[in-house]
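Figure 2 data, in text form.
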Amino acid sequence: MKDPRPFKVLSTLLTAVFLLSSAPLTELRADMDTHREYSCDPLSVTYDQTASWDNTTQAELSITNISEEPVDGWTLEIVFPGDITLTNIWNALDISDETTGADTLVVTNLKEKNVVS
């Protein structure tokens, strides 16, 4: 009679490979920045990542006047580590154009919200 051990080892190995290949894999990633503060005198910019899934990130950027004088208008240029597609924006205007890099987002204030006190 033949030794059944090689068959058992092969059977166990194939079962393990099958189970691992059919299990849903979770992408292991650490988002580089979930919170960061930048000083852009006379303004301060705070970045907060509020959600992240697949290749999508939801973030909140807050612009605060840290001077004693009102600031009339602002423009913010953000360079990301890879290409970006903006799908929604609130309380700002995306002014990126064909000359803006695929990894760059340029936003400015809305006309009715141009003064940061």
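Caption note: Residues 16-31 have pLDDT under 50 and may be disordered.
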